[in-house]
Amino acid sequence: MKKEVEIAIRRKQQIIVRNTSGQTVTGFPERTADASILSLRTVHGSLWIPFDEVEQVTRLLSIRSHHLSGMQLCTADL
């Protein structure tokens, strides 16, 4: 999971995080000095989630095609 979060940080991708109680939050992950904490920038502000409470991380991938008039979003469950 931490590897996927690192990829999302490098590629500036949004992620969806589900915690152990089933709640989900969407945002952009950010680097932290504490490797045990996931920092997420959301529309409501910054959020910190301990990695031991993270159950699933899904990266949101933007895919462009010259055959499509707009942009489509696909998800990759990781």
Q: Helix and strand layout, with pairings?
A:
Blueprint lengths: L1 H10 L3 E5 L4 E7 L6 E6 L2 E6 L3 E10 L8 E6 L1
Antiparallel strand pairs: 1-2, 1-5, 2-3, 3-4, 5-6
List the strand order in the largest sheet: 4-3-2-1-5-6
Question: In CATH's first tier, which class applies?
Answer: Mainly Beta
Shape: globular
Tell me roughly what share of residues is in helical segments: 10-25%
Which range does the strand content fall in? over 45%
Give me the CATH fold name.
Answer: SH3 type barrels
Uncertain residue segments: none
| SSE pattern, N- to C-terminal | HEEEEEE
Radius of gyration: 13 Å
First-last Cα distance:
7 Å
- Global structural class: mainly beta
Mean pLDDT: 87
Largest sheet at a glance?
Answer: 6 strands, antiparallel
Identify the CATH architecture.
Roll
Tally of domains: 1
DSSP helix count?
1
Number of strands: 6
How would you sum up this structure, described in words?
The chain has 78 residues and is mainly beta. The chain has a single domain (2-77), classed as SH3 type barrels (Roll). It contains one helix and six strands. The protein has one helix at 2-11; strands at residues 15-19, 24-30, 37-42, 45-50, 54-63, 72-77. Strands 4-3-2-1-5-6 form a six-stranded antiparallel beta sheet. The chain is globular. The chain starts with a helix and ends with a strand.
